Amino acid sequence: LIMYQRLYRSVRFLSGLAVQRQQQLSAISNLSGISRSSQLCSHRLMSSTSSEADAGAPGVGGEADDAQKLEQQQQEVAALAKRCSELQTAMDQLQDKYVRALAESENTRRRLTRQAEEARIFGISAFCKDLLDVADVLAKANETAPPEADPTLVEGLRMTEAQLKQVFRRHKLEPIKPDVGEKFDPNQHEALFEVPVAENCQPGTVAVVTKVGYRLHERTLRPALVGVVKYT
C-alpha cells in the first residue's frame, strides 16, 4: 500500500511537470512567432540600400537558438511522458496485486470463521455419541419395564429419558427414525440385512428399524440400523 501511494504521487508529480513543460513549449512557440513577425516588419522598414544578408543574420541566429531550445524542451517532455507511462503501468500492476491480496484475505477470513463455527458446533460430537448409548439404555428400560415394577422407579426412568431428549433437542441432536416403506438413504441409514418382498413395500425401501439413528445439526452422527427389502 505504501509503495502504491508513492507511485501514485510520482505519477501526479511527473504529469504536472509534463504539463508545465508543454505550457513552456507553447509560450516559446508564441514568442518565436512574435519575434519572426517583428523581424519581418523591421526588415520591411529598413532602407533598401541595406543588404538582405546583413539584416537577416541576427534573426537567423535567434531563430536557431529558439529552435534548439524548443527541441530540447520537446525531448524533456517526451522523456517525462515515457517515465509517467512507466510509472502508471507499475501503479496499475501494484493496484491489481493489492486488490487480489484483499480478496484472498477476505476468503481466508471467511474460511477460518466457518471452520471455527463448525468446530464449535461439532466439537461435542464424541460426547454426544457417548450420550446416545445412555439414551438407548433408558429407552430399552422403559420399553421392557415389567408391570409389577415399582411405579416410582418406572416414572423416574421416564422422566430421566424425557429430560435427556429435551437436552438433545436444545443442542440440535435429533433422532433418525425412518418409516417402514421409506426409501433407503445411505447417508442416514445403515442396512444390516435384507428381507424378502413384503406387502406394501417396494424393493430398496426400509422394511424394519432395529436401532434409531441421530443427526447433529443436520449432519448424521449415527445412522439408523435398518433391514431393507431385497430386490428380486
TrEMBL record:
One of its GO terms (cellular component) is PAM complex, Tim23 associated import motor. It holds the Pfam family GrpE. CDD domains: GrpE (cd00446). Keywords: Chaperone, Coiled coil, Mitochondrion. It is found in: Mitochondrion matrix. GO terms for molecular function: adenyl-nucleotide exchange factor activity; protein homodimerization activity; protein-folding chaperone binding; unfolded protein binding. Residues 70-111 form a coiled coil. Its main location: mitochondrion. InterPro entries: GrpE, GrpE_CC, GrpE_head. Belongs to the GrpE family. Essential component of the PAM complex, a complex required for the translocation of transit peptide-containing proteins from the inner membrane into the mitochondrial matrix in an ATP-dependent manner. This is GrpE protein homolog. It comes from Macrostomum lignano.
